[in-house]
Amino acid sequence: MATRSRYGCIDCKKAKVKCDEVHPACGTCKRRGRQCSGYSHIVAKTRKAPEATAAQSSLAATSSPFNTREPGLLLSPVTEPATDRVQTYDAALYSSEPFNAIESDASSAAPVSPIAHSSAVLVPTPPLLRSLAIIPPGAVQPTDEPFIEVYFMRHPADLVFSGEFVQEMNYNVLQVFQNNPQAVGDTLSAIGEAYLRDNSLPIVGFVPNRKARILARLRNMDSLGVSLELLLTTILGLCAVELVDVNCHNGHVSAIPALMENLAMMLEHYLHKGLELTQLAKYFVRALARQDMMLALTRFHRPRIPTGYWLDDYAMQHADRFMGYTGPMMPLLAELAALAEDILKSIQEDSPSGIVWDSTWSNPRRQSVSVLDQAFELQCKLQSWHPTLDPLLSFETSRRFLMHAYAYRNSALLYLHRLIHPAGCSLEADQTALVMAYEVMVHTTTTKEDMKMSLWPLFLASCELHSDADRMIATQSLGVICDCRKTVTALRTRDFVVNRVWAARDSGDDWNWMMLSQQYPDELLPI
Question: How would CATH label the architecture of 10-45?
Fold first, then answer.
């Protein structure tokens, strides 16, 4: 017998009575003194969702950074137009090797639904509700949402040491994001755009002059009295665009040196007022200080950002997402950069033209007693330095950081050797440098996770290699770094080694990388 109500509740259908179809519990059951069991056709409709919607929901659940259940990774629901645009970029997003984040109970739990306790029938969370909306809807432009999503899917996983730091980085970035979604969202969108340019698909929707707009906002931030964390996030984002934008690879003058100079002035002005850096500010400063240190060692000047700004007790005892265990070694690298600056000034004073590559940089020369004393003292400090283990990390993670730290220490010793004994000055000095280069490479492997952050040590070691077999290993190692980090600076560094250093040595020209970096300053920045 047919039921009297096609869309009635479960109890009315069983009783074959007319249901008034009031939701969530019908009035007929209430008048009959019964507890309504709800409506079965709701579940049926949910199961008959189109295949495209089901596929889209599966994609969002497995790949979206907004779906992470870590504290702080909570964004507004993504609107439908933004979702459509995200599908346009799928091929670009998933062309690289997927990143396997560490699973946890928090990340594997079912999504929290705001309607779970208000209905008698549990309905799966709608696919567009990716997380709880603690950033107000509309705070981020819908056109920016796909680019912000690309940032969270690609940038942390590509650049930090390993998965242990991805959620930490996202959490800290989103703390600033939630306080100023428009400004930070614009910065993250610029990074996402830079990643999407690195593909062969015809991508539309880029915002013209976004970087110029961010720079203009940055100039006004200090006068507007915004938080230091927002300033640091903006500068860090601009540096990130310089690192990953493929348009910056050929013939582009990097803006990172200018950004470091402006950052140094901002920090000095901030601390001069008697203010202190928060832990969140130090977290961002550490990332910028590492870039500043690599710039100082490459261009032979003192670091713009003093290590005392960010090297506190916490940084001394814990691994950093970019520096690993080398954070406590940064004061020694600062001394090394200062010594390089002093030597460079003396060379410029001795040169008639004042130009380094016209002087006697690579010729045997007698250093002053004070310079030799500084070099010997620094050599003793570097040889006695040992990394401090982070008790919170596993053996496998600590092993990777230890290899990286010892590679940095040995490369610093090689750098110091070449300051006093330039490349090509004598056969004995070159043989000593080659042995030191081997010692650097002993602490590296061909594993991506182990090699990821070793660009500077591998660069210094590669410059000393002469045989085809050694150069093949160095080329493979540099290629691994370029594949797993995909930064413009890594590509430029590899090209500098092959096209400048090795080519000059093979042709009998001056192959001292320190001289060549002064001659071609925009081709080398091993960050």
Answer: Irregular (4.10)
pLDDT at 133 over 60: no
Distance of alpha carbon 383 from alpha carbon 468, whole angstroms: 30
CA distance 459 to 477: 10
Phi, psi angles (nearest 5°) of residue 423: -60, 130
Q: pTM for this one?
A: 0.74
Q: Taking CA 222 as the corner, what is the angle to CA 219 and CA 228, rounded to the nearest 5 degrees?
A: 115
Residue 37 has pLDDT above 90, yes or no: no
Give the type of residue at 132: L
Give the model confidence (pLDDT) of 329-353 as tens digits.
Answer: 999 999 999 999 999 888 877 765 5
- Measured CA to CA, the distance from residue 459 to residue 462 in angstroms comes to 5
Give the whole-angstrom CA distance, residue 478 versus residue 497: 10
CB atoms within 10 A of CB 217: 17
> Where along the chain do its domains lie?
10-45, 80-104+137-294, 304-523
Most confident segment among 82-96, 466-480, 482-496? 466-480
Residue 11: pLDDT band by 50, 70, 90 thresholds? confident
**Residue 131: burial class (beta carbons within 10 Å; 0-12, 13-18, 19+):** buried
CB atoms inside a 10 Å sphere around CB 88: 15
Spatial contact of 14 and 25, defined as CB atoms under 8 Å apart: no
